[in-house]
Design a protein that fits this description.
With 116 residues, the protein is α+β, with helices and mostly antiparallel strands. The chain has one domain: Ribosomal Protein L22, Chain A, CATH 3.90.470. The protein is built from four helices and five strands. A three-stranded antiparallel β-sheet has the order 1-5-4. The longest helix has 17 residues, at 39-55.
Length: 116
């Protein structure tokens, strides 16, 4: 059963400008594993982090570092949730996450589904 759906869209050039203007933003938004990725991948991952919050009902107190996007051996993105996000997900009965990332024409998008 689907417990929550989230989607977010990020303008890649605007996102890149924010990262250049505020270098510490990289550390506040992304895990150590995510930081070395190219800006279009970071924008898609930021969209996924925002989509996770929406799928959980946008509870207060979630941190961007609590949602990490990793890729499996075939390149499929997977969500790893920790902290308050994991607590909220557990409370809602989330057993599995589905995530889809894409970027084209200067835009990155992410869809997240929380399944129970």
């Amino acid at each position: 059963m689907i417990l929550g759906i989230g989607v977010d869209v990020v303008d890649i050039a605007r996102f890149e400008a924010s990262l250049e203007r505020t270098p510490r933003l990289l550390e506040r938004l992304f895990t150590e594993t995510e930081r070395p990725l190219p800006v279009h991948s970071l924008a898609a991952r930021f969209a996924a982090k925002e989509a996770v919050a929406k799928a959980l009902g946008a509870p207060k107190g979630l941190g961007h570092l609590e949602a990490e996007v990793r890729c499996d051996e075939l390149g499929k993105p997977e969500l790893h949730i920790t902290g308050k996000a994991a607590e909220v997900a557990h409370g809602l009965g989330v057993k599995r996450w589905h995530v889809s990332l894409s970027h084209d024409a200067g835009v990155a998008v992410a869809y997240v589904i929380a399944e129970g």
